[in-house]
Specification:
The structure is a single chain. It is built from eight helices and six strands; from the N terminus they run βααβαβαααβαββα. It is α/β, with parallel strands linked by helices. Helix 3 links the parallel strand 2 and strand 3. The chain is globular and about 50 Å long. The N and C termini lie far apart (46 Å).
Length: 231
């Protein structure tokens, strides 16, 4: 039975991650720590023998820079890279630019948790700017799954080794598809920044196994950090 691997990587810490601010489609750069996390991802991927044929990322600089630094550390900067808006973070509407704890004070923890972790809940729409104005995780799912099926999956079936550098919610949506996670259970899925997530897939691209590369305690701490952002 033929097996495939695809590597998912949430971008390193951004300047607004550092300040605990809802970011969404605002094009914020990596922090110094985020750049180091991207380089560390490259080191561990290289140590584990990963060689990529192609990489995908969003059009947002924090994901693109993470990919660039990771591949540079691996000595693989010359592979083809495709940027796609479908891999963007979800649009957080009027929450973009708002401190997460301030949002809790204004709207209440239950409401903000629904917006942040729920599948169908949409934050208040932004007053002006480019579409989509606001998105639920369901909306992100509806754009990333066709892109996966039409663009990325066929390459994996052909035997290509793929790295995807994206965002917390775009990766949550993709993982929901891969693991067939329910609308309810996806609420509890937290993805740490800067730690490669390996998916082993069968010939039909059904997951056989998945795991994070690196120190288990560090990974668990990083997941808890994401989980506790509203506390």
């Amino acid at each position: 039975m033929q097996q495939h691997k695809v590597v998912l990587l949430r971008h390193g810490e951004s300047l607004w991650n550092k300040e605990n601010i809802f970011t969404g489609w605002v094009d914020i750069e990596l922090s110094d720590l985020g750049r180091e996390q991207a380089k560390e991802a490259g080191v561990i991927l290289k140590e584990n023998g990963f060689v990529f044929n192609m990489a995908f990322t969003s059009v947002l600089k924090r994901a693109a820079e993470t990919l660039e630094l990771t591949l540079k550390e691996m000595g693989q900067s010359d592979i083809p890279i495709e940027k796609a808006w479908q891999l963007n973070e979800r649009h957080y509407g009027a929450l973009q630019g708002v401190d997460k704890k301030t949002a809790v004070e204004k709207f209440g923890l239950e409401q903000v948790m629904a917006w942040r972790r729920g599948y169908k809940a949409k934050p208040p729409a932004i007053d002006k700017g480019s579409p989509p104005f606001t998105e639920s995780l369901e909306d992100v799912y509806s754009r990333i799954v066709p892109y996966w099926q039409e663009r990325i999956a066929p390459l994996i079936v052909q035997g290509k080794s793929i790295l995807i550098s994206a965002h917390g919610n775009s990766l949550r949506a993709l993982i929901k598809k891969l693991d067939n996670i329910s609308d309810k259970d996806i609420e509890s899925l937290n993805i740490p920044v800067g730690i490669p997530l390996i998916y082993e897939l069968d010939e039909t691209l059904k997951p056989i196994n998945h795991y994070y590369l690196g120190d288990k305690n560090k990974t668990e701490w990083a997941i808890k950090t994401v989980e506790n952002q509203l506390k």
